[in-house]
Amino acid sequence: MRILFPLLSLAACASYPEKVSGALGNFEAGRFDDAMAVLSDEDRLGSAFLAGAEAGTVALAAGYWDLARSYFEQAAAASADIEERALVGPEALGEALGSWVLSDGVRSYEGEGFERVYVHTSLGLTYLAQGLLDDVYVEARLANRLLEAEEKLYETKYKAGGFGHLLSALTYELLGQPDQAYIDYERMEAKGLGTALAGRALVRLAKVLGRTEELGRWEESFGKDVERPAGAAGIVVLAGVGMGPYKVENSLNVYTPDGLFRIAVPKYRSRPQVVSDLRLIDEESGVSLRTERVEDVTAVAHKNLKDRLAWLTAKSALRSAGKMVLTNQLEEKYDGAGFLAGTLFTAMTERADLRAWMSLPDSWQACRLFVPPGTRTFTLEAIGGHTVSLGSYQLEPEETMFVFVRTLGPDIYAHVVGGQRVEPPIGEPSGFESNRETNSP
Predict the structure, then answer these.
(1) Strands lying side by side in the sheet with 363-371
(2) How far apart are CA 19 and CA 386, in angstroms?
(3) How far apart are the C-alpha atoms of 125 and 192, rounded to whole Å?
(4) Which among 116, 160, 254, 393 is least buried, having the fewest CB atoms inside 10 angstroms?
């Protein structure tokens, strides 16, 4: 019976949410370096995947593109084996996920299926910020293939993939391949993700590509193409808004003469959101545009877990039944003390796995505003939160300027890539940074 006590001690360790709560508090308060110091610690988090994903998200919000890329590559490497199985087919992926262990919390954590998809989407964002365009759509395509594998495994359809398609479409446009961009926008529209944004792009590109019949169909759904000034520059806002859900335990305890029968599974709990969306304002013209939700991260997380819940429940029930057999054996050998030890063992080890990528946003949102080239001044407003001035920029004809954004509580953390900065934002808010790099798009 002595072997049970180290196991009980192990089971009593802090849960994943408890381990990272302080670091997440620093993240939400904008203390990014402090948050990364903890969240990048693989030993503390107990998972190379989570250390890379969590720290990468913080670095992305801070505008540390190289560091974010490195962390997300670490997360991708940690889940490479299960990703390979996923791309082979649903049977291979199911085998990889079907480990029957003492507790789900002691197995290696390689990310949930949707989390692995978002790692590659996030990598695509870092590549876009650095102007590594060929790498963007490679990651976007991989993210979509992994999403399709997850859908095949659970025989379902997730309302997901919109953000990856958007990154791919924007990249193709920057590379001068509007026909390829058109395909990604079509996929967004077909999935019902970012439909207004995708619809406007489809009208514009169908016109450019001379697809008269399709143009009529898109105009019927989304209206005629808007007039744009000659050589119009584009401003694209790509925003992670709010904080995504977190896991809590949902358990059932049944005390029987043979010992404790316990089922424990995770469930997601949504967070209240301060900011609903963002508004980009061109101060010269007074024209503004609000971001549109292109990926509901919280909804995807809930559905993905729901699809796995029966399987997780069955695993927990079978493990618990086996632990009742152990309890009986201990009782036969050690009487009441054995029964108590077995019951405690079940209670402490049959726990829900609460590990999850907790720094993900609640949603990915985007908008695209076309303005005349020249010097323009922009303001970004968080609906329900704060407003920041992005400052003035000299925009060349047909140039695309990106604003990478993360909202945390009411605060906006924005990083501009592209354009020639004319003057700093008035008041220079702490959450703002302009990045003009030599390899920026």
Answers:
(1) 292-296, 363-371, 233-241, 400-408, 411-417, 432-435
(2) 30
(3) 22
(4) 254
> What per-residue confidence (pLDDT) applies to 152?
86
Question: According to the model, what pLDDT value does residue 437 have?
Answer: 37
pLDDT, the chain, mean: 89
Asked if 288 contacts 390 with a C-beta cutoff of 8 angstroms, the reply is no
Please provide residue 67's backbone torsions phi and psi, each rounded to the nearest 5 degrees: -70, -40
Task: Kindly report the number of other CB atoms within 10 A of residue 224's CB atom.
Answer: 11
Which of 287, 295, 353, 351 has its CA nearest to residue 323?
A: 351
CA 310, 311, 316 angle in degrees (round to 5)?
Answer: 95
User: What percentage of the chain has pLDDT greater than the value 70?
Assistant: 88
Mean pLDDT of 161-170: 96
Query: How far is the CA of 170 from the CAs of 161, 189, 224, 330, in angstroms?
Result: 14, 15, 21, 63
Q: Is the dihedral of CA 29, 32, 33, 39 positive or negative?
A: positive
* 424 phi/psi in degrees, rounded to 5: -70, 160
Using the structure block, give the residue that is written with the tokens 């196991």: 7
| pLDDT category of residue 197 using cuts at 50, 70 and 90 | very high
Q: Phi-psi region for residue 427, left (φ > 0), alpha (ψ -120 to 50) or beta?
A: left
Which stretch of DSSP H or E encloses residue 93? helix 90-97
**pTM assigned to the model:** 0.90
- What is the average per-residue pLDDT within 277-282? 98
Tell me the two tokens of residue 87.
Answer: 């791309």
| Separation between Cα atoms, residue 414 and residue 420, nearest integer Å | 16
Are 287 and 380 a contacting pair, CB within 8 Å?
no
383-421 confidence digits (pLDDT tens): 999 999 999 999 999 999 999 999 999 999 999 999 999
Assess contact for 390 and 379: CB atoms under 8 A: yes
